[in-house]
Amino acid sequence: MIDPFGRPITYLRVSVTDRCDLRCVYCMAEDMTFLPKAEILSLEELDRLCGAFIRLGTGKIRITGGEPLVRRDVMRLFDSLGARLGNGLRELTVTTNGTQLSRHADALAKAGVRRINVSLDTLVPEKFAAMTRWGKIEKTLDGIFAAKAAGLAIKINAVAMKGVNEDEFDALLAWCGEHGFDLCLIETMPMGDIDGDRTDQYLPLSMVRARLRKTWTLDDTDYATGGPARYYNVAETGRRIGFITPMTHNFCESCNRVRLTCTGTLYMCLGQDDSADFRRVLRAGASDDELDAAILAAIARKPKGHDFIIDRSHNRPAVARHMSVTGG
Ligand code: SAM
Ligand code: SF4
After folding, report:
1. How many CB atoms lie within 10 A of CB 235?
2. Going by CA atoms, what residue is nearest to atom 8 of ligand 1?
3. What distance lies between CA 31 and its chain's CA centroid?
4. Rounded distance, CA 298 to CA 139, Å?
5. What distance in angstroms lies between residue 153's CA and the mean position of ligand 2's atoms?
6. Per-residue confidence at 312, pLDDT binned at 50, 70, 90?
């Protein structure tokens, strides 16, 4: 699959649910309305779609959400996708808030998952509770250490928020180094209505990186995971730190991914509204050939890049859907 700008599309992110057991302030409003079940693809439908993408050249699949591990029986999907590893699929990963990892870490490893991303924005329990609106940090920490014990490589994702966790990046980097985790910092993106003002929260990571350099030696590396982060080796810890900077740096040039929502809507770009409806295609009884043709037609519409701008005058997000819909 090559898009109109010559980029090979090899990475599919799949949001398996829009639901979540947390309500991170930058991601969701407190009183979110979730989708009715009939609109959500079954695990079999998701597996069939993923199978078609793999047939067409997708080598990496990341399962995300919402919180993917709160979907009932989601391990069935990991098992069926894991069985495709080595058969077109090269890597199966997951992004999770970690609350259910204690239960699922061993099964994920058994299904063939080798690396996971866990979101953890702070190490301070009270701050964690405030940022997630009601989360208990112990649950996520227990999950992280269960995943480590299961042999999974762990990358911690933290969204950088001005005045909230900006004083903690040194501590997070040290903690990750101590436990053998990579760290990835993410700029807040203007996606979906939340309670509050986003422009107040936005913290450019170029500034964070400059501050970190006062304490840490960040060496350039060409390490890449197939995602949008730019990585550095941290000399003092032997681990890596990545920066995802959609707002200050255009990360679209090397974009290799598309995103499938739990309703079967394919977004060719995180920051644009154009989409393709695969639930309709599947439920109309499409053959494999018809499914493949519909996927290729969607890839042919992949736009050149996003245009994230916070609409300051109206305090409106650049993209109306929440990150939990498209999958982070
Ligand atoms: N629930 C899982 C989790 O939190 O890891 C997976 C889904 S979550 C939407 C995926 C990632 O998107 C998380 O690391 C989260 O911090 C990030 N995220 C959510 N809303 C965001 C926003 N508005 N800007 C930047 N990152 C965001
Ligand atoms: Fe849930 Fe993840 Fe969004 Fe937080 S970032 S509310 S854990 S989906």
Report:
1. 10
2. 328
3. 22
4. 39
5. 21
6. very low
Pocket perturbation via mutation, ligand 1, pick of 159, 243, 262, 324 by most ligand atoms within 8 A of CB: 159
Ligand 2: residue whose CA is nearest its atom 3: 27
Domain 11-326 in CATH 3.20.20.70: yes
Task: Please tell me if the CB atom of residue 20 comes closer than 6 angstroms to any atom of ligand 1.
Answer: yes
pLDDT cut 70: percent of the chain above it: 92
Closest by Cα among 223, 233, 232, 229 to 254: 229
Token pair recorded at residue 35 = 């989708």
The bound ligand whose nearest atom lies closest to the alpha carbon of 192 is 1
DSSP three-state, residue 86:
coil
Give the position of tokens 């859907």: 321
Does residue 256 line the site of ligand 1, with CB under 6 A? no
Residue (of 248, 121, 101) closest to 183 by Cα position: 121
pTM of the model: 0.93
- pLDDT at residue 211 above 50? yes
Structure tokens at 266: 């394919």
Percent of the chain with pLDDT over 90: 79
Pick the more confident residue, 262 or 322.
Answer: 262
Secondary element (H or E) of residue 160: strand 153-160
Nearest CA to 154 out of 176, 139, 136 is that of 176
Predicted pLDDT of residue 327: 64
Nearest CA to ligand 1 atom 5: 96
Ligand 2 touching residue 324 (CB < 6 A): yes
Report the separation in Å between the CA atom of 6 and the middle of ligand 2, taken as the mean of its atom positions: 33
Tokens 């499409």 correspond to what residue? 286
> Which of 27-41, 138-152, 184-198 shows the highest mean pLDDT?
138-152
Where do the domains of the chain lie?
Answer: 11-326
- Specify the 3-state DSSP secondary structure of 102: helix
Half-sphere exposure of 48 toward its Cβ, with a 13 Å CA cutoff?
Answer: 19
